[in-house]
Amino acid sequence: MKRFSLLAAAVLFCIVAQPCQASSSTKREKDEAARKRSENHERKFKRVLDKQNAAFAVQLKGLAQWCAQKGFGAEALDLWNQAKELDPDLAGRCPAASEAIPTDADKAAFKAKKKAVFDAQAVELFKLGGTCFKAGLIGRAYDMVWEAVIRNPEHISARKLLGQAKYNGEWMDVWDIGQLKRGKVFKDEYGWVTKPDLDRYEKGLMPLRDNWLPAEQVQEVRSKWDSAWEFDTEHYHVQSNVSLTDAVAFGKICEDNYKLFFRIFIGYFSSRNQGEMLFGGKQEKKLMKVNYFATKEQFKSILGDIVPDIAAGIYISGRPQGTANFFKIDWATNTKILKHEATHQLFSESRRLAGGSKCGAWVVEAAATYMETCGRVEGRIVTEGRKAPWVQAFKQVLQNGQSKPLRDFDQLTYPGFQSIGPGIAYPQAAALACFLIEADDGNYRERFVDYVEAYYLGKLNTGGKLEEFTGTSYTELEYQFRTFIMEDDTAPVGKPEEKPKSEEKPKTEEKPKTEEKPKTEEKGQQK
Ligand SMILES: [Zn+2]
After folding, report:
1. Ligand 1 centroid distance, CA of 513 (Å)
2. Which of helix, strand or coil describes residue 171?
3. Structural domain of residue 79, as residue ranges?
4. How far is the CA of 123 from the centre of ligand 1 (A)?
5. 340 CA → ligand 1 middle, Å
6. Which of 225, 259, 343, 497 could cysteine-pair with 371, CB 3.0–4.6 Å?
7. Alpha carbon of 506 to ligand 1 centroid (Å)
């Protein structure tokens, strides 16, 4: 199999792009040309993927028919259903299984045939991923690498790009392998521990400074914030005064969310970082800080006046580094809040930012509210889509005639966005993210990520940007947006959320206009 290198592809892409930079066309014309190229690449990608899927569906159908003849009833149905999912127009119904009893030779033949069909599809998907990367469709490229692994879990090149390697016969993240090689094991109760330390834990001891003392005694001391647990995961430094087991679980959620974020917003990272991060094993220069308090009272008393009364989580930007702060509620709620605030943290800290965009501020909350709805199942991203509570709330906002015209909404600064009120601003931002990422099979997804990047890099200094980035007028976008949101009639209209559960520090210097906003920049340095 011919392998490709995404890093090499990135370099190639930069070289190819040079002549464009040398042209005498204005920046606006160049941006427009780049957008059109991206649209063309997107169309080509969809055509190729549809063709690949249709061919794969035919292969699956043929294999299903063979299975039915040999008496593999369940396998035939499973393959047929997979084929129908890929190509809903596939004619006919799954053939009934014969009365034959499959022999050992039949079983071996089935295994070999299935592997050949799925492996060949993985090769095609991986190749398509390489083409996407060269064309600048970073999100699509990453999706294809994941799809290749789903079709063939032993696809070595794809695993490598996902930062995974084989250790003791199992595919694992390179960072985890590093821990194992250092003689550590992961335990849900204690996190990564050496074997001698594990023995001590299992004897009912826990570490405190340089001593191992009875667990109850240590937990009592650790319940005070000044002597809370502190440990590192791959991308985070966690401080927490909950039980060690809960702190470890919280760290795992942080890491899961990081992977989810990277999957959806990979286009936000610089080309160089994409190359480095895709290959895995690169330790982040700086771990992001998260604080997980045992109680709301501690959360508020330690962080001080910066925390609004309604906040159940807050990201506080700061120099040289911010912190994302939470307190223990329940796992479902904590997970959602963490996804929201950690998204603010990731956008703020994963790149060197210029700041200062004067419009398009809705993207800050759009990305965070969208991430609340995302999860992963067997390597694939699953979202609540238009069923998400925020989007359902926006349907109600629309029906009440309270939504803001897209043109006006897009011109707002962050304080302007907040001044609309959370009952309108957040649902509209969330619904817009859902539309731009999911409508028409992700047609605007890459350009939405470009738009988010431009906002955080401080490049949005005049109004009218979303229509430039999407190449679609506000009038047409508004129509597509409303149609997309309202056409989903199967979902009940949910109750609008009264207030957002979490807030983050604004990044602008303007004074907040609403009571919900944090008040100062500096207090976030408190611990
Ligand atoms: Zn937020």
Report:
1. 16
2. strand
3. 6-162
4. 40
5. 6
6. 343
7. 9
Look at the chain and report how many structural domains it folds into. Answer: 3
| Domain end (from 220, 245, 264) | 220
- Residue 247 CA, ligand 1 centroid: distance in Å: 23
CATH of the domain at 80: 1.20.1260
Question: Cα(500) to centroid of ligand 1, in Å?
Answer: 8
pLDDT digits (tens, 9 = 90+) for 59-101: 999 999 999 999 998 999 999 999 998 887 777 788 888 888 8
Torsion 368-374-126-255 (CA) sign: positive
Do 60 and 83 contact (CB within 8 A), yes or no? yes
Last residue of a domain, one of 180, 203, 220: 220
- Distance between Cα 439 and ligand 1 center (Å): 23
pLDDT of residue 448: 92
Q: What is the DSSP string of 286-299?
A: SPEEEEEESSHHHH
Kindly state whether residues 181 and 240 are assigned to the same domain.
no
3-state secondary structure of 72: coil
At residue 512, the pLDDT reads: 31
In angstroms, the CA 208 to CA 218 distance is 6
Instruction: Tell me the pTM.
Output: 0.79
Q: For residue 1, is it within any domain?
A: no
Mean pLDDT of 342-368: 86
